[in-house]
Write a structure and sequence with these properties.
The protein has 6 helices and no strands. With about 140 residues, it is mainly alpha-helical.
Amino acid sequence: MTSRDPKMIRLTQWCAAGAAGVLVGLVPLFDGNPPARLLAVLLVAAAVPFGLMRQRMPWLWALVVAWPTVTLRFSDAGWHAIFLAVYAMVGCYVGDWAAQWWGETHPSGPYRGQGGADRRAGAAVAADGTRVAADGLPPEVPGRF
């Protein structure tokens, strides 16, 4: 396996997401009864980087981040701890939206169709180098939700 092995990269990402959730879940060790808003802010902050990576299913990555926190808080808060997963979902989707917005506003490659004439003419180009539709909406990505 090389350092560019996709399976190893994905495994590292899964471990990092789980570790982020465990770190947020361990907050009660330092504060006996942390306020729920602190855990909410920490879960949102922990989930944003995994949304920025533009994974295929952001909701799954949000669950990976939230699951350790929910299980660690379940003994104290009861079934209400499940609602903490909502904050991780918000964080993942905010990161996903920010990455999509950044990619659309800062295209990286030239448009390769028609010899780059559209690029020189000032036509809108998406981050992957394709032409943006006339309505300005991003193309539908299958399997995102």
